[in-house]
Amino acid sequence: MEHSKKSLKKFLKFFKKGFYDQKYLDWERDYKWNAHLEWKEQLNKKTFSGLLEHKKYKEIANRAVRIESRTNLLFSFEKMALRDAVKSDEGAMLFAKGLFDYVYRKGPLQKRFENFANVLSKLPRKQTRVLTWPLQTVFGFIANPEEHIFLKPLVTKKAAHNYNYEFEYKSRPNWKTYNSILNFAKQIKKDLPLLKPRDYMDLQSFIWVMGSEEYD
């Protein structure tokens, strides 16, 4: 409990009104939420499904890449790896079909997560590998922040250490690690009810503030 108090104190040092502070919205939430709103407009289930039906795989990939590009969630080399991976017809098709299944199909999250990791592992690779934690988690996070969280490894590991949370991390995307960060976020929500987080965007931002050098 002592660690949660320290983390809360640090967060409130920067954002006095917590997740409803205007500075927090300006710095951390609004750009992510705006990407989510654009996703709902450009790649909602009905639109996405229609594009798949007409085999507009490159259009789907381009829309996803464009929406993400307006955020700073991925590093530039990760953005480039994704663009390279979906340039070919085959890469765009694999990505588009895999992404739809991950975000919109029914069924256990574990199975959808593992299937999407398998899709990313098969995408064409030019230089940097595509199967990384940020690329694995960014699109679910943008599309549905009530179910998915975004994972930046170094920041998350540091935040978990500072919070005294046992984060089960492995560098290759896997369900055990992803489930561990989901549980980490849920623990934060349980420990700090007064903050009233809306979704995983708020909880991911809290983790970011705990672990990022930007907030030292």
Write up what this structure looks like.
There is one protein chain. The radius of gyration is 17 Å and the shape is globular. The chain contains eleven helices and no strands. It is 68% helix and 0% strand. It has helices at 2-14, 22-42, 45-53, 57-69, 76-85, 89-104, 109-122, 133-143, 153-163, 175-191, 200-211. It has two domains: 2-29 and 149-215; 35-143, no CATH class. It is mainly alpha-helical. Helix 9 (153-163) crosses helix 11 (200-211). The longest helix is centred in the first third of the chain and has 21 residues, at 22-42.
Q: Main attributes?
A:
mainly alpha; globular
In short:
This protein has 216 residues and is an all-alpha fold. The protein contains 11 helices and no strands. It is globular and about 55 Å long.
Instruction: Summarize model confidence as the mean pLDDT.
Output: 96
Number of helices, where a helix is a run of at least 4 consecutive DSSP H or I residues: 11
How many E strands? 0
Q: Which structural class fits the helix and strand makeup? A: mainly alpha
Number of domains: 2
- What ranges have pLDDT less than 50 throughout 5 or more consecutive residues? none
Oligomeric status: single chain
Task: Sketch the topology as an H/E string, one letter per element.
Answer: HHHHHHHHHHH
* Percentage of residues in DSSP E strands: under 5%
User: Main sheet?
Assistant: none
Distance between the termini: 21 Å
- Binned, the helix content reads 55-70%
Give the overall silhouette: globular
Rounded Rg? 17 Å
